[in-house]
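User: Design a sequence. Structure:
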């Protein structure tokens, strides 16, 4: 199946600066050494353009202190080509972001902080970051590379091929979480179109020449969700301050909220990413109505992805009575296992606008089940669960996912049997290719 080009969208996410508690310092450091500016444009497949003013740093253009916009032009190129270079940005396929470390990173503490940031995203969002290795490199053509630098910065969204996320000894875990947010597709919250209803930019307090870091990059971006002062993508109140006075002042009460925090994702951050990568799955189950005791019967399951984004960690849960046994299963990309009261069948991904079939052979116990029901779930947020079968509690769904997807599925599974322990245990499916990423401007997020 040829995957369509998925349009980007701007959500209500925020992208603050670069490093946790020292974010403002690092952000200023990346942008303060150079005064000559260049204009760069991020173009979304939808046609929306985000225009940035950027400084050259280490051969790259950097906007808003930590947004990478590609190689800096030479003096000759700047004079002959102008500055209207367009960069395409998109969402990551199936919400999966492969990553690896550049050989330049040798600091074990820094590596540990990067892993902590990755774990934070994996534990708290619908995005999955998967380490790219020699074994799976052919499956992950687009990926991020954590690279040692003198500050923290990232490209926005998926740009194609290898793309860097800059990290340094001065980047704390929260700052790296922030930079991964940019790579996911989030922009800075303070650059939303509706920001003037929520904050005041104190231009008189901003360092001379740094005013462009507070510009709104697009007048027609689609803000998503309410403005979030507590987002990990928000600038702090004193970023780029010339006098120690605030450069950003909230209009509304922010009691209990630290604007510019670099500790953890906010609820708004998580929701924004969910909406950015949302999909719509559908389940159809065909099972016999009258099941006899000790009889063998077949359950056919059809799972469809009706959304424009691929889903990852797709799971079908079939509750069973005591004595009912799973004999075999068939289905490309599926793996199944049986627990005391459930049959769990999962696959790594289901790409957009695709369908997958699964067939289960079961044998009833002495007391045959009155009927067979099933529930469909995925790590990717489903914007319409009405066609996902029997509703189960969030606790049951979370426990089933944690049990089945204790490790990412990494190789394709075809048909299998539960005999001799075949078809059980760890999943072996491939995280299929990556979807094109939206720039979530939550607006920017």
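Assistant: Done.
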């Amino acid at each position: 199946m040829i995957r369509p080009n998925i349009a980007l969208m701007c959500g209500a996410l925020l992208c603050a600066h670069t490093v946790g508690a020292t974010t403002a310092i690092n952000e200023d450091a990346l942008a303060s050494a150079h005064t000559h500016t260049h204009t760069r444009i991020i173009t979304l497949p939808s046609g929306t353009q985000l225009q940035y003013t950027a400084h050259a740093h280490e051969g790259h253009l950097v906007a808003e202190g930590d947004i990478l916009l590609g190689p800096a032009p030479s003096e000759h190129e700047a004079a002959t080509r102008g500055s209207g270079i367009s960069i395409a940005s998109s969402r990551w396929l199936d919400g999966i972001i492969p990553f690896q470390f550049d050989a330049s990173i040798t600091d074990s503490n820094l590596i540990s902080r990067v892993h902590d940031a990755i774990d934070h995203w994996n534990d708290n969002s619908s995005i999955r970051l998967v380490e790219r290795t020699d074994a799976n490199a052919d499956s992950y053509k687009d990926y991020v590379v954590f690279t040692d630098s003198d500050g923290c910065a990232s490209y926005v969204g998926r740009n194609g091929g290898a793309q860097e996320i800059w990290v340094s000894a001065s980047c704390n875990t929260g700052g790296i979480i922030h930079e991964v947010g940019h790579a996911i597709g989030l922009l800075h919250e303070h650059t939303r179109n509706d920001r003037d209803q929520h904050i005041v930019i104190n231009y008189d307090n901003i360092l001379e020449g740094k005013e462009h870091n507070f510009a709104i990059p697009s007048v027609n971006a689609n803000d998503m969700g309410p403005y979030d002062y507590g987002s990990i993508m928000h600038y702090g109140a004193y970023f780029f301050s010339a006098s120690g006075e605030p450069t950003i002042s909230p209009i509304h009460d922010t009691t209990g909220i630290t604007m510019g925090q670099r500790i953890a994702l906010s609820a708004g951050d998580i929701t924004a990413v969910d909406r950015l990568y949302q999909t719509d799955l559908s389940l159809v189950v065909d099972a016999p109505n009258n099941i006899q005791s000790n009889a063998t019967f077949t359950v056919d399951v059809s799972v469809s992805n009706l959304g424009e984004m691929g889903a990852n960690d797709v799971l079908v849960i079939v509750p069973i009575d005591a004595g009912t046994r799973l004999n075999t299963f068939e289905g490309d990309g599926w793996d199944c296992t049986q627990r005391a009261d459930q049959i769990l069948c999962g696959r790594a991904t289901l790409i957009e606008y695709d369908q997958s079939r699964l067939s289960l052979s079961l044998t009833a116990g002495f007391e045959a089940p009155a009927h067979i029901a099933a529930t469909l779930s995925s790590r990717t947020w489903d914007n319409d669960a009405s066609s996902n079968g029997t509703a189960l509690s969030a606790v049951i769904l979370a426990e089933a996912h944690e049990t089945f997807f204790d490790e990412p599925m990494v190789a394709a599974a075809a048909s299998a049997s539960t005999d001799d322990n075949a078809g059980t245990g760890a999943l072996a499916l491939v995280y299929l290719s990556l979807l094109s990423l939206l720039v979530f401007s939550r607006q920017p997020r």
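The domain at 281-397 is CATH 2.60.40.1510 (Immunoglobulin-like). DSSP finds six helices and 23 strands in the chain.
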